[in-house]
Amino acid sequence: MKRLLSIELQKIWKNKASRVLTITYFVLLSFIALIASIKFDLGVFKLDLAEMGIFNFPFIWHFNTYIAVWFKLFLAIIIVSMMANEYSYGTLKQNLIDGMSKKEFILSKFLVVLLFSLASTLFIFIMSLTLGFIFSSFTEIGIVFSDLEYLTAYFVNLVGFFSICLFFGILVKRSAFALGFLLILYFTEGIIHLLLNWLILDNDKVNEIIAFLPLQSISNLLVEPFTRLSIIKNIGTQIGVENIKDYSVHFSNVIIVLVWTAIFMFLSYKIIKKRDL
To answer: Looking only at Cα atoms, what is the longest distance across the chain?
Structure first.
């Protein structure tokens, strides 16, 4: 596995676009820390995001992972470009000639997916821990390390999403088309959602059904955290809106995404196995 991963990392690092995108991704993740500097003072209206408690433990785990997950498109571009380059530069055929099996080839790509996901998760963990100890009002160890399931959900979210990107990259051989297919899948799930709403009319039942769709299941891993903030809850109470949203990470959602990950990786292997390279 070490050999396979080393080969893939060399391919990525020697590609200038992939190298720039990787560095840009982690730089952008670090910009989450700049949220603490956002302050508005417009007379009566004053806003200080750090004072609102967004970096309080354990809320910070939910907030930072939710914000960070929106940047995953940068790594998704690297994943699909990685496959496009295999076909464009003939490295896939050369690897097979050099003795790498097709199973090892797919495994090497999945190892890259795992590595990117793990590196991103560790980065968010360290950054959140640092910001939390600087800004949080609660620094007891029991509170600091509670709600770490959001990091698990973040990791699974990335692995699932990148596995889909890898599948489309293998399927269509071109990075732009692969991202286009990803967009088509997104709109297809949206259309299915609308049709189910029209046919069933029971919103809870519809949500239970669409939770099994690949992109929706990935999205369900991390629910928006903003309405958890006390200031938002107080506003809701004052206007008579009761917040009953479930913010927890459900084991069933994790399993659904892992199943989809296995399916897309299996399909990727089947395509490579049957395709005349």
So the answer is: 71
**pLDDT tens-place string over residues 52-69:** 778 889 999 999 999 999
Joined together, the tokens standing for residue 193 give 């959602």
Within the chain, residue ranges assigned H as helices are 2-14, 16-30, 59-68, 73-88, 91-97, 102-135, 141-144, 149-172, 175-200, 203-210, 214-219, 230-238, 251-274
- In the chain, what are the domain boundaries? 2-39+46-274
121 contacts 64 by C-beta, under 8 angstroms: no
Query: pTM to 2 decimals?
Result: 0.91
H or E segment at 39? Answer: strand 39-42
Which contacts qualify for 121-128: CB closer than 8 Å, 24 or more apart? 121/151, 121/154, 121/155, 121/158, 123/26, 123/29, 124/29, 124/64, 124/65, 124/68, 124/151, 124/154, 125/151, 127/29, 127/30, 127/32, 127/33, 127/64, 128/60, 128/61, 128/64
